[in-house]
Amino acid sequence: MHSNRLGWLLLAPTLLVLGLFGVVPFFYVVWVSFHQWNPFAANPDMIFNGAENFRRLVFDEAFLASLGATVSFVFFAVISELVLGYMLAQAFMKDFPGKGFFRTIHTLPLIMAPIIVGSVWKLMTTPSIGIIPNLLDSWFGFDLNIGQSAAAAFIVTVVMDVWHWTPLVTLSLIAALVSLPQDPFEQAQIDGAGKRQIFWHVTLPMIAPAVLATVFIRLMDALRTVDEVLMLTGGGPGAATRYVGVHIFKEVFPRTNYGYGSAISVIVLYLTIVVCWLLYVGMLAPRNTGKG
Amino acid sequence: MNLSVKLGASALALMLAVGSAFAQDIKVGHPDWWKNAGAKFDGVTLRGVTEATPPSNYISDVLAPAFEDLTGIRVEIETTSWDQMYDKAIKDMEAKTGIYDMVFIEQDIVYAYLARDFLVDFTAELKAHPDLKAANFDEANLTSFADNFRGKDGDLFGMPMEAFIKVYLYRTDLFNDPKVKAAFKKETGHDLVPAKTHAEYAEIARFFTKWGKDHDMKLWGTTAQAHTGHPASWYEFFESVAPTYGVYNWGINPDKNYAATVAHGGSMNSPEAKAALKWWLEMRDLAPPESVQSTWTEVATTFAAGRAAQGLVYGENAAWIASDKNKSRVVGKVGVALPPLEDGVMADAESGKGYIGYYDGGAFGTPVTSKNEEAALLFLQFLALPEIQEDWAAAASRITLTSTYDTPKVKALDKELGGYYTMMREDGKLFRGAPPYPFHAQVREATAQILYKVLTGDLGPDEGLDQMAAKAEEELQTLGYRE
C-alpha cells in the first residue's frame, strides 16, 4: 500500500506535465473541432456546429487531395527508408576500414532541424541555381524544376525525407541486429538455408518488433511533415506537395480557420491510429497468437 | 590559471565584445524628462514580439538598450519568424493573456486587428496621459504611411517603424551601354529607357532575355515573384501588377457587398485583371528559371546577382542591392523608376481613386491586454523620435518620419540608391498598402490555391480569375462579411 502511494507520488510530476501539455490540449482540439471558429470572421466567437466540420471535410477536394498526396509520400518515404536503413545497418554490422567515421557521418542529418533541412534542400534544388539541377543538366541534360513540375517536387520531397530520416532507421535496426542471438543463424546454416531464406525466416521475424516500432515512428512523423516541405516547396507547385500537415498549417495559421483545422487534425490522428493498428495486427499479432 | 578561471575570463571577454558590438551612441533630447517619466515605472519590463527583420533587429539590439539606459524601463524584444510572430501575437491577444506589451503589426493585418479591437488607441491614450507626452515627439512628423495605422476617426493605433515602396529597379550599366542601346534601337525602333507602360516593359524584357541567350550570359529581361506554392506570387499579382492595370483593392468592392466578380460589381475577373495576369505570366516566362520558386527575398537576390535587367523589387531590399558590395554584384549599377502603368492609372493615383504600387511596412502597437500600457506609450514615442531616425534609416533603409529625409546619411544613401528615398518622399503618396480589409489572410489563402494552378499551367488565366473571384465571394460569405 505504502509503495503504491510512493509510486503514484513519484509519477505525479510526469502525469501532471503529460496531462497539462498532452491530454488537455488534445481534448481542447476535439472540442474546437465541433465549432465554427475563425477569429477574423464577422462573428469571431466560437459557434457550436455539431459534426458540420467533419461532414465538410468528407467533400473537401483540397483536403482529400492532400490526404492522397500524403499517403503516396508516406508510402514511398517510409518504404525507402526501411529498405535503405536495413541495408546500411547490415553494412555497419560488418567490419571495414573507416567504419566508425562513416557511422558518425551518416547520422549527421538526424541532428539537423527540419526547417534547416528544408532550407538546405531549397538551396540545392532551386531551378537553374541549385547544385542538383545544375549537375543533372550537365550530366544528363535533365531540367529539374521543382517549381513547375509536380512529379519532380514530389520526388524531391521524398528524397529529402529519406536523406533526413534513414539514419534513424539504420540506428534502430543496428540495435536490433546486434542483440540477436547467433544460435538460430548457425542452425539455419547447418540446415542448409540460403541467405534469402535466413533473412525471411530467421532475421526478419526476430527483428520484426524493432521494424514495427521504427515504422510506427517514421509513419507518424511522415504523416505530420510540415517544416521541411513548407520550406522547400510551400506545398507547391499548385498543391502537389501540400501534404496533410502543410494543409492543416495553412488552414489553421494563415487562414485562422481554427474549427475546421482542428477537425482535420482529429481525423488525421484517427487515421494514423487506424493505420498503426492495422500494421500491428498484420505484423505482430499473428506472431504473438502463434506463440500463445 | 585553472580551467574554470579561463572559461570565466573567456565568457566575460565574449560578453564585452558582444556588448560593444551593439553599443551605439544615441543622444536624445530632454533626457531628464525621459528619466523622470521612466521613474514612474520602476521595475517594469516591456515585452514585445516582432519579425526578425533588419529594422526590428535594430530595435532589439540598439534602441531597446538605449531606451533602458534613458528611462530605466527594461525592454525585451523577441524577434522571430513571420508566421511565429503572428501566431504568438494573435494567440496572446485572443486569449487575453497579456504577455506582450508591444506587437509588430504589418500593414496588411492592421485592419483585422482593428476590427477585433485588439489595439490600444495611441492618440487617445496620449491625450488621457498628457504627463507622458514627450516634448520631442511630434505625430505630424510621421510620413503618410502612418495613415495605414489610423482608425476611422483618424487616431493612431500603431507607431510606424518600417516603411518601403515596391519600386521598378533597372540596371543602369545595361541601359546606358552604347552597344546594348544600339542593338535595342535596331531591334525595336525605340530608345532604351526605363519603361513607362507595360508594353514597353515587355519589349525590354523580351530584348534582354534574348540578349542573354544570344551572348551566353546568365541574364534575363525581368524578375518575377512567381512562387507556385507561396503567397508571395499572390501578392505580386494583386498588390503590384493588378493595380497598374487599374484593378484596385484586389478587385473586391466593399461598396457592393464585398463583390469580387464582375457580375456582382467587383473587378477581380474583369478584362483589365485578365490582361494583367496574361502580361505577368509572359513576364514570368521571360524571367530567370528560379522565379517559379521566388518570394520577395529571392527576387531581390536574383536582381542582386545580376541575373535580371529590370524588375519590381521591394524597397527594403533596394538599399542593400544598390550599396552592399558583400551581398550584391550590381552596386552602383541600379536605377529606380515608378512601375509601368496602363493609361489612366496615374490619374487615378493622383486623384486618390487608385494607386500605382504597394507601400509596404509595419508598426509597433500595444495590445489592449497589455499590463503596461503607459510604459509602452513611452517606448512607442521613443521609436518616433527624430534623433534616432538617421542611424536607423542607414542601418535598415526604412523611413517613417518626414524629417529623416533631410538627414546627411539618408541624403548620401539616396544618391547611392539612384534616388529611391527622393522617390519615396515625392511619390510615396501614389503608392498604397493593402486594402483595409479585416479578412486579409483568409481571402488570400482561399484564392491563392487557384493562382498556383494558373502558374503551373493547370488552369488558364481567364478561367483562373473567374474561379478566384467566385472563391473570394464564397469565402467572404462563409466569414460573414458578404450577405
From TrEMBL, chain A:
<dbReference type="GO" id="GO:0005886">
    <property type="term" value="C:plasma membrane"/>
</dbReference>
<protein>
    <submittedName>
        <fullName>Carbohydrate ABC transporter membrane protein 1 (CUT1 family)</fullName>
    </submittedName>
</protein>
<feature type="transmembrane region" description="Helical">
    <location>
        <begin position="62"/>
        <end position="89"/>
    </location>
</feature>
<feature type="domain" description="ABC transmembrane type-1">
    <location>
        <begin position="67"/>
        <end position="279"/>
    </location>
</feature>
<keyword id="KW-0472">Membrane</keyword>
<keyword id="KW-1003">Cell membrane</keyword>
<feature type="transmembrane region" description="Helical">
    <location>
        <begin position="7"/>
        <end position="31"/>
    </location>
</feature>
<keyword id="KW-1133">Transmembrane helix</keyword>
<dbReference type="GO" id="GO:0055085">
    <property type="term" value="P:transmembrane transport"/>
</dbReference>
<feature type="transmembrane region" description="Helical">
    <location>
        <begin position="258"/>
        <end position="281"/>
    </location>
</feature>
<comment type="similarity">
    <text>Belongs to the binding-protein-dependent transport system permease family.</text>
</comment>
<dbReference type="InterPro" id="IPR000515">
    <property type="entry name" value="MetI-like"/>
</dbReference>
<dbReference type="InterPro" id="IPR035906">
    <property type="entry name" value="MetI-like_sf"/>
</dbReference>
<feature type="transmembrane region" description="Helical">
    <location>
        <begin position="152"/>
        <end position="178"/>
    </location>
</feature>
<feature type="transmembrane region" description="Helical">
    <location>
        <begin position="198"/>
        <end position="220"/>
    </location>
</feature>
<keyword id="KW-0813">Transport</keyword>
<feature type="transmembrane region" description="Helical">
    <location>
        <begin position="110"/>
        <end position="132"/>
    </location>
</feature>
<dbReference type="Pfam" id="PF00528">
    <property type="entry name" value="BPD_transp_1"/>
</dbReference>
<keyword id="KW-0812">Transmembrane</keyword>
UniProtKB/TrEMBL annotation, chain B:
<protein>
    <submittedName>
        <fullName>Carbohydrate ABC transporter substrate-binding protein (CUT1 family)</fullName>
    </submittedName>
</protein>
<keyword id="KW-0574">Periplasm</keyword>
<keyword id="KW-0732">Signal</keyword>
<keyword id="KW-0472">Membrane</keyword>
<comment type="similarity">
    <text>Belongs to the bacterial solute-binding protein 1 family.</text>
</comment>
<dbReference type="GO" id="GO:0042597">
    <property type="term" value="C:periplasmic space"/>
</dbReference>
<dbReference type="InterPro" id="IPR050490">
    <property type="entry name" value="Bact_solute-bd_prot1"/>
</dbReference>
<dbReference type="InterPro" id="IPR006059">
    <property type="entry name" value="SBP"/>
</dbReference>
<keyword id="KW-1003">Cell membrane</keyword>
<dbReference type="Pfam" id="PF13416">
    <property type="entry name" value="SBP_bac_8"/>
</dbReference>
<keyword id="KW-0449">Lipoprotein</keyword>
<keyword id="KW-0564">Palmitate</keyword>
<feature type="signal peptide">
    <location>
        <begin position="1"/>
        <end position="23"/>
    </location>
</feature>
